[in-house]
Amino acid sequence: MSKNHIRPLTNLQEGQTAQVVSLLSKGSMRRRLQDIGFIEGTQIECVQKSPAGDPVAYRVRGALIALRTEDSANVLVVG
Description:
- This protein is of the alpha+beta class.
- Helices cover 16% and strands 38% of the residues.
- It has helices at residues 27-35, 69-72, and strands at 7-8, 17-23, 43-49, 56-60, 63-67, 75-78.
- A six-stranded antiparallel sheet has the order 1-6-2-3-4-5.
- β4 and β5 (63-67) form a beta hairpin.
- The protein starts with 6 loop residues before the first strand and ends with a strand.
């Protein structure tokens, strides 16, 4: 897969970084993601995946945020 391919945030592996391209979520979930820093152009780092794979911890604007797979699948990133 190309490094600059647009993909869901769920595809990031531990230690990888990417940049938010867009959000597929609607309504209150979209607003919540924006409020915690998932805004177009923001750099995201996958910090740690839980042993079961859900949730996953991401570093967003200096904060550590845990997201469920169903929510992170709606965040598109590049890089």
